[in-house]
User: Which sequence fits this backbone?
């Protein structure tokens, strides 16, 4: 099967992203690229679907506040893979929430975030809880691997208290939670951060459950 995919790639009959999905055993898509089925959030103003991707924010006006598009399902141990790009100048920021919960009657969420944005790329942040970086990526490493303004890949591995982050195949964080009171399960959410005009694009979101 791998040889067939390689030939198709050479002939240009299948895209690299499509080929990778075909060879990812155990992974299932959780965003169909056409609808918000299985997701919830502000899909009237903050999020839209464009070219098979979720797009948060906009480049023509300031982003009023943090907004999150979240799964309706909860996950515990898993490998999450997706592609992302962040557009905008200066303090453009976004992130991928994991093991998270929505705060009742509020636009915010609480939980771990695989961060995006200058000074934050590849780091693990604790959104609305401890409100700090739990594990910071090496900016020298990130600068070598990140494709600014273009598509990149994020892989997030959650196994028990251990969380590992990878950008474009390179590990940026290996964190182990030492607080037994922190839940090891929750929703997945895609963020656009409040601030200057900016867009966060997400596509090919797929997950593999682990024991």
Assistant:
């Amino acid at each position: 099967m791998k040889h067939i995919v390689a030939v198709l790639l050479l002939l240009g009959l299948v895209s690299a992203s499509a080929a990778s999905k075909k060879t990812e055993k155990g992974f299932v898509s959780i965003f169909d690229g056409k609808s918000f089925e299985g997701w919830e959030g502000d899909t009237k103003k903050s999020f839209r679907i464009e070219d098979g991707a979720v797009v948060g924010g906009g480049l023509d006006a300031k982003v009023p506040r943090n907004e999150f598009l979240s799964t309706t399902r909860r996950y515990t141990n898993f490998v999450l893979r997706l592609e992302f790009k962040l557009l905008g100048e200066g303090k453009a920021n976004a992130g991928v929430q994991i093991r998270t919960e929505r705060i009742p009657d509020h636009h915010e969420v609480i939980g771990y975030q695989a961060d995006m944005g200058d000074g934050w790329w590849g780091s693990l942040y604790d959104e609305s809880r401890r409100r700090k970086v739990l594990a910071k990526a090496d900016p020298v490493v990130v600068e070598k691997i990140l494709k600014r303004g273009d598509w990149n890949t994020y892989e997030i591995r959650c196994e028990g208290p251990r969380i590992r982050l990878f950008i474009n195949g390179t590990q940026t964080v290996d964190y182990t939670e030492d607080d037994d009171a922190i839940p090891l399960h929750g929703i997945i959410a895609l963020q656009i951060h409040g601030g200057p005009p900016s867009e966060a694009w997400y596509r090919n979101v797929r997950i593999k459950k682990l024991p």
